[in-house]
Amino acid sequence: xxxxxxxxxxxxxxxxxxxxxxxxxxSRAIQRLEDEVGQPLFERKPRSVELTDAGLIFxxxxxxxxxxxxxxxxxxxxxxxxxxxRIGAIPTIAPYFxxxxxxxxxxQYPKAxxxxxxxxxxxxxxxxxxxxxxxxxVALPIPAKYVEIDNLFEEELFLVLPPEHPLTQKKQIRLSxxxxxxxxxxxxxxxxxxxxxxxxxxxSVHPLAVERANQLAMVQELVALSHGISLIPExxxxxxxxxxxxxxxxxxxxxxxxxxxxxxxxxxxxxxxxHFREAIHAYVQE
Length: 286
Fold this sequence. Notes:
The protein contains ten helices and eleven strands. It has helices spanning 2-9, 12-19, 23-37, 53-76, 94-108, 121-129, 191-201, 216-224, 234-238, 271-285; strands spanning 42-44, 49-51, 83-89, 112-118, 135-139, 148-161, 182-186, 208-213, 230-233, 246-248, 256-263. It has three domains: 2-76, Winged helix-like DNA-binding domain superfamily/Winged helix DNA-binding domain (Arc Repressor Mutant, subunit A, Orthogonal Bundle); 83-152 and 259-285, Periplasmic binding protein-like II (D-Maltodextrin-Binding Protein, domain 2); 154-257, 3-Layer(aba) Sandwich (D-Maltodextrin-Binding Protein, domain 2). Helix 1 packs across helix 2 and helix 2 packs across helix 3. The protein is elongated. 42% of the residues lie in helices and 23% in strands.
């Protein structure tokens, strides 16, 4: 615990405050640990510390040990009703898919502690692999191995236009009709942008992103203000009740994304986690 506190903060003072310990006591504890290991674990600097090569090895093993201990505690107390579930989701899924699902699950398992974290796909995959998350809901493709992938559903990406846009008058809108239109997209860290650009380029259309945003709601607002057009997931379209935007399904091959659940199959799978994964499928079928 003391080692992890210093390693995470890179500062003895901050680590001591977090651990509710005096700095001198923390320093002595780390020194005793280094004496026992026979190697310095931290390189001391005037205002910070850095892990040495030995410290990096020690940190890796310490994290593995902590995960084993955590799994052991969870397995001993696994009753299928209580415990903590750490659930992740990407920003283009979390606010549209999770609220009702979490509400239904909480009603069924009122003693469960549900912790939700929203992040990009890369970070969620990494945190699942490291055991920081129990399950995450993301969209394909998944840029990593060693995680279990459970396909949930496919959803269409709908073209969204400002109401006065000339294309709203067309009965059918093809991908070729929008190839010269300015696009409003999410920042490159979001996989939805990759899905859109990849779909278009596979059909020899190269969307021009004139503006980028951090949130899907902002993309929709910029479209409403005639800054450009975009493609929006069906789950976001369903919750958009305003008349300031027009949604149309593209003719021909539809742009889609595949939503999946991922988890680390090498960690202990609690009954509560299994119940939650079952609840996801039941919710999708509804």
